[in-house]
Amino acid sequence: MAGLDPFQPDQDYCVYCHAPAAGMCARCGALCCGDCVELVMGWTTQRAICSSCADAEPATPRQAAPWLLALIVAAGVGLVLALAY
What span, in angstroms and rounded, lies between the C-alpha atoms of 64 and 30? Predict the structure, then answer.
């Protein structure tokens, strides 16, 4: 008789609804099922992120655009001021 093997579950389960997990969240790494993730566009492909990570980030790029525009304008003004003096 061989030694005892450690217990290994048959499947990994979703941390939110305890259904069989389909994969990991692309942002935090939590195991999630297909119902508990949202597909969002990355730089080149779609990625699946869990609902808590989706709530933490802006829903659309338009919501992030004013901050990005303000950052570009501030960098431009800083560059102009640095070159002027």
Answer: 25
